[in-house]
């Protein structure tokens, strides 16, 4: 009985290792956006449709900004001179707008999923 438990435990660890390796091998595609002078740079990013992605947003301004998108259902406050990560679920082909809520008149952008 004891040997059987050990054998099952080892098999479980092997299975977990295989799945963990597969998950690590397929890392998320990462896209970077900067906030500079209350604008997103670049203001348009083309991303793959049907894949979860990661946005890294770097705020180079002296004031905080809030990344906000109704179409993506995401909000994130990014303090001055810091970076933040925003995870985006797999998107259908199309355009998804976002703004910097604290400077909406200038901080505008969009993701284009193709």
List the keywords:
Immunoglobulin-like; 4-stranded mixed sheet; single chain; 114 residues; alpha+beta
Q: Strand count, sense and closure of the main sheet?
A: 5 strands, mixed
Top CATH class: Mainly Beta
Query: How would you sum up the global shape?
Result: elongated
- Give the name of the CATH superfamily: Cupredoxins -  blue copper proteins
Strand order of the largest sheet: 3-9-8-5-6
Report how far the terminal alpha carbons are from each other.
55 Å
Task: Count the beta strands.
Answer: 9
Please name the CATH architecture.
Answer: Sandwich
**Number of separate domains:** 1
Describe the oligomeric state of these chains in a short phrase: single chain
Helix and strand succession? HEEEEEEEEE
Q: What is the fold named in CATH at topology level?
A: Immunoglobulin-like
The tally of helices reads 1
Overall radius of gyration: 20 Å
Structural class: alpha+beta
Taken as a percent bin, the fraction of beta residues is: over 45%
How would you characterize the overall build of this protein?
The chain is built from 1 helix and 9 strands, in the order H-E-E-E-E-E-E-E-E-E. It is an alpha+beta fold. The longest helix is centred in the N-terminal third of the chain and has 24 residues. It is elongated. The model has no long low-confidence stretch (mean pLDDT 89).
Topology:
Elements lengths: L1 H24 L3 E8 L2 E3 L2 E4 L5 E7 L5 E5 L4 E5 L3 E7 L5 E7 L7 E6 L1
Parallel strand pairs: 1-4, 3-9
Antiparallel strand pairs: 1-2, 4-7, 5-6, 5-8, 8-9
């Amino acid at each position: 009985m004891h040997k059987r438990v050990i054998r099952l435990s080892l098999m479980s660890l092997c299975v977990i290792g295989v799945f963990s390796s597969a998950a690590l091998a397929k890392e998320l595609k990462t896209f970077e956006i900067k906030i500079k002078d209350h604008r997103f740079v670049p203001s348009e990013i083309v991303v793959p449709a049907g894949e979860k992605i990661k946005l890294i947003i770097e705020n180079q301004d002296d004031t905080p900004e809030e990344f906000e998108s109704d179409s993506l259902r995401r909000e994130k406050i990014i303090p001055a001179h810091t970076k933040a990560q925003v995870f985006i679920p797999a998107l259908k082909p199309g355009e998804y707008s976002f703004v910097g809520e604290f400077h909406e008149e200038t901080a505008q952008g969009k993701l284009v999923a193709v």
